[in-house]
Design brief:
The chain is globular, with a radius of gyration of 15 Å. The longest helix has 5 residues. The protein is 11% helix and 35% strand. A five-stranded antiparallel sheet has the order 3-2-1-4-7. By secondary structure, the protein is mostly beta strands. Strand 5 and strand 6 form a beta hairpin. The model has no long low-confidence stretch (mean pLDDT 94).
């Protein structure tokens, strides 16, 4: 482990606080006046529908996201982005791109990620 990584070490209890869930994208649209943001409506099973403003517009067209299954951070404090209350975050990999994390097999919306 590099020194940089050692400075960011968390305890298991910190990780356990994250409520990661499987979500299905029901709708996606551009946010007016935002270069990077898309507004996503997610089905998160028993948690209901959630809205997320996600900075993935340069990599995904709204129509290609509808129907996708993604990993969603459900217990992130809400934040207002360009007039949209973002109720969590979808999880993506990459610094120069956004690769959405998806389960390798069919999962029900709301399934807890462990």
């Amino acid at each position: 482990m590099t020194d940089e990584n050692q400075n960011n070490v968390i305890q298991y209890d910190d990780f356990a606080k994250l409520d990661l869930r499987i979500a299905k994208v029901l709708a996606a649209e551009a946010i007016e006046g935002a270069d990077k943001l898309l507004k996503l409506t997610l089905d998160v099973g028993e948690l209901g529908q959630r809205t997320v403003a996600s900075g993935i517009k340069q990599w995904y067209a709204p129509e290609e996201l509808v129907g996708k299954t993604v990993v969603y951070l459900a217990n992130l404090a809400p934040r207002n982005l360009r007039g949209v209350e973002s109720q969590g975050m979808i999880i993506a990999a990459g610094a120069e791109t956004a690769i959405l994390l998806t389960p390798e097999a069919e999962c029900e919306a709301g399934t807890v990620v462990r």
